[in-house]
Predict the structure.
Amino acid sequence: MKPILAALSLAALVPCLVAGAAAVRADAGRGRAAPVYGVELPEGYRQWPLVAPAQEAAPLDELRVVLGNPVALRAYGDGTRPFPDGTVLVKLAWTHVPSPDFEPASVPGAATTVQVMVKDSRRYGDTGGWGYGRFVAGRPVDEAQHRTCHACHAARVADRDYVFTRLAP
């Protein structure tokens, strides 16, 4: 009887270890600041609530979700704009592949980027109060890519406090 219990315990533990290892890999960039803004991957961000999903068309062709810290979710819920200092938004992105179980559906494939926006009006006064970080495989990408972040947001959504994502209904 004891070998059966040990096998069952091990079988229950393996998925937890795999999930834990995936979380460690996903958070591997913590402590590594992105160039230009010095933004890091926030601790525990993968447990934050969903703000909204998105499917990006070509040329990006990605599945994305945006997660928000409690300050962000409170601001979304209350309709507070501009977002208050302390707001943090994290966008996870993957390639999408056909579902092996349901042909018309797409599911996440390989991870592509994790992007972070941090609201700190004093630190990032020149960019509408926002600092940006873009990470691939847990490491910040080069400075040139970070220099494009604010320009893109400023050109398209300056009137919404530089935030593309709206709270999903």
About this structure: The chain has three helices and six strands. Helices lie at 2-26, 70-78, 143-157.
